[in-house]
Amino acid sequence: MPVEKRGPVMRSTVQARVSITTMLALIGVLSVFALSCPMAGATPILPQYPALFNGRQVLPVVGDSAPHGAYGSGGTSSDVASLIQIILRLGQESTASIQDSRLDTEVMDYPSLNWRTGYSTQDAVSVGDPMRSIVNYKYNSRIAGAWLDVASGRILTASGGSYSSPDGNHALIALLSDGGRNILLVSAMTGFSVRAAGAILSSYASYPQVFNGVAVVFIPHDDDADGFFEPGESVTVLENVQAGVTTTTSTPTTSTTRLSIGTVAMRIIQGGADVHYIFPSPSSQGKAPGVIAASFSDWVAAAYLQGYSAGGGYLQNLDTDASVDRSNGKPSLDGYPSGSLLVLVSGPIVHGSIKYYFDAGSGLDRSPVYFRVTTLSGATHLQFVLRSTGVVIGDAAASDISSFQRDQAVVQSFADANGRLVFIITGFTYQGTVAGAKWFVRNVMPNPSAYTGSIVVVQWNDAPTAWLNGQSPGNDNLLVDDDEVIIIYSG
């Protein structure tokens, strides 16, 4: 459970649940001030707050204090205090019909992350972070251009922004639409910052710089050093995120925004229609230039990942589909909107979209690691190279892998220029890709929070003799076994 900066010590789970339940009842009493007046839903952008909720049913949600969800964490009293501030003012300043407040475990199932019956049509206001609230967890990666990377504790944006603060008081307020429902999220990892977000939403007229775009990353300041954020105290806006366009107040960067592979694992486990598997077509017709037909063995690795998608509902296409630009392999924004997870498994020789991110893309559309073929001492070598530094992090002679009993693979994740979360597993051969996928499934999927980096290179040796990096001989059965895979680079 996150450490509270201020607030009562929770002596037991039972006491915490009683406290939060009591406070939720108070929110229900406060909500009688809200009026109901039918009105069509507005585009969910922050400048329209709180009027965008006029005439709409609004469901207040906070994380259950009992351990639950992907991280086994629980909500805090500060989350409830923040929600009280938001709902009280929303009831006074809009014609929203405020519903009875609920715990996240009462309105949403886990791990499917489906809304329960009776809670699937209202707008919602959810306070916490992806660890404390499964509602925040569900929607964290669907915000257009900004998300909280739990593994690192940083707030990342599609512009390349990566934000933190010395005391952890950076926070995110975001609006998004889910099937016509307006979802307002407050994600903050300290008691001070989550309550500050509530105060800012309660005093929205005093902070016009905050209410710009679909999301805002900011740091609230305790100007009078009393341990609390009061209306009128200062706020530093780190970035206002626009729908489809990101404007940043920090120094712009052209480097790719990193996303931890642990966060990717959680998205795959969650499943849903915003998880897209793009497979390499077994036909060369319609491929991007320079990309050849794949074999069905190139699909095996992706199948390992799909088997762990507990939520199901993911979508899949070929790299020759109309949703992929056939001139260069780039996934279209119409087919794969901002916030989507793109799962690309195989290699740039057979996969048009992997080739795009490895070679054809520019700026944020270039993967952190790329593949190349080079000559060393007269021998052909295959390599994985860090784009930012030119450092080789994977290398094997072509002759070493020609028997398909040895290989290396890169597992990497990043956000592209359109705010899509891109996840790539590529081996030098299909066997390496399988090794990379099996390593990810066996190690990262069961324990996502332990993997905070965005790049891993693994090495597989099935041959009966030792290989590079001191790797022991394999069992010589031509299959990828778990104990034959080691990590040779992580970052």
Describe the structure.
With 491 residues, this protein is of the alpha/beta class. It has two domains: 13-248, no CATH class; 257-490, Chitobiase/beta-hexosaminidase domain 2-like (Chitobiase, domain 2, 2-Layer Sandwich), CATH 3.30.379.10. It has ten helices and 23 strands. The protein has helices at residues 13-30, 77-93, 104-107, 134-140, 191-202, 261-270, 300-306, 352-360, 398-401, 430-444, and strands at residues 57-62, 97-98, 102-103, 123-128, 146-149, 154-157, 162-163, 171-178, 181-188, 215-220, 235-241, 246-248, 257-258, 275-279, 315-318, 341-345, 369-376, 379-386, 392-397, 406-415, 421-427, 455-461, 485-490. Strands 1, 2, 3, 4, 8, 9, 10, 11 and 12 form a nine-stranded mixed beta sheet that branches. Strands 13, 14, 15, 16, 20, 21, 22 and 23 form an eight-stranded mixed beta sheet that branches. α7 links the parallel β14 and β15. The longest helix is centred in the N-terminal third of the chain and has 18 residues, at 13-30. The chain is elongated.
